[in-house]
Amino acid sequence: MYFLPHFVANFVLIAYICSMMSKLSQLKYFLTIGMWQPPGQDAGRWKRMLLNLSRKVYMAVRLFIERGHVDFATQLSFSTILAIVPIFAMIFAIGRGFGLSEYIELWLRNTLSSQPEAADSIINLAGSYLQHAQTGLFIGIGILFMLYSVLSLIYNVEYVFNTIWQVKNKRPVARILADYTSMVFLVPVIIIVMSGMSIIANTTTEHLQAFFILGPMARIGIRLLPFVILTLIFTALFSVMPNTRVKLTSVIGPALLASVAMLLVQWGYVHGQMFLTGYNAIYGSLAALPLFMLWMQLSWYICLFCAELCYMNQYLDYYEYMISPSDISEANRRKIALVVMKHIMLRFRNGKPALTVLEIKQLTGIPIRLVGDALYRLERVKLVTTVGNSADEDTRYQPAQALERLRMGRIVDLLDHACDNRYKNNRFDIAPALDPKTERIIREAYEEFIRKLDNIDDL
Predict the structure, then answer these.
(1) Which residue from 30, 63, 116, 198 has the fewest beta carbons nearer than 10 Å?
(2) Residue 308 binned pLDDT confidence (cut-offs 50, 70, 90)
(3) Cβ contacts of residue 261 below 8 Å, gap of 6+?
């Protein structure tokens, strides 16, 4: 009888563990298979929306981890801290020209209200930066360092956003100079305008306090102003930084989420100060720096995760069925390339507009990631070419050679030998590793295979 309670306790524990393992297995099945199956005909609108949202959030979390955004956030935090003093030095310099330096300082303190020590440090360092930049050799060196810090930050942000959006083409040098220069001078002007709007809004609210209805509405508007400003900033960041066309509808939701998350982080920091008294006692005045860096790191986590959500809003179809090119055989990849090439040639032969990736997917029923892989392989061997700007999301594809030259055998031969030049450049040849007789039989069989394909008139 003494062992009975222990036996029951062990039995309950084992049953609980088995139940948890079963639930984990069900969750894994749902995330990898069940969530990606098409919903039934009887599925309601809300169920479809919830399923679609689940797919986007799951893929955003997965890509956030797989693409190493934790490391990217650390790099961007360092670049931001390096550039923040030169940026605000430039902002204060422009603000002094308009007589708005005090308003900019007030805006900065309100923005960093959760970290007053960091705001004081930035203002003092920016003032010192401007004071030394007016005399001696520091004029040239200071301006160069300021431009390097700011442009380096913009370049790093663009690189990370291009990684998120899978953009392989960089901006041309002329466009980099034009875009980056405009950003450097536009950001201070925008901050000055925002600080002026904040002052006008506060003044207007004070005058409206006496009104019964307008007073409370004005107070609500003032409280919502930081949220609106943050949303506009994130919307501009998510839309402009990637070197590709981004739909506004894909950006609005993640921008709202990023704004809410940033305000929650700031609220948590302010209300968590009581738990940091011991930390401040140990580090003293230096406590502001690591806390500011932690806040910066969390801010970039939020920004990059919401950027992934923007990408998933626009390109969720690319992850349909969760199939990637590496999941299928080389023979099937070749067949998909032939099917894609057939539709491109047929469209060109009939004199109709060239096809986009999405249109090919709709015509063939092939998952869009596999269509994109086939187009990349066909473009690499110069069988298809793009029409229009390659940075446009609606890039269209048409044959790159005369149709009479595009026989099935020749297409397969070019696809199979796409990397031959790379092997030759590396002075690597597989043929000597084979027996001469075996190599000859394989070559003759392959040539016969290509000749038979050339006799097929299906393209």
Answers:
(1) 116
(2) very high
(3) 302, 306
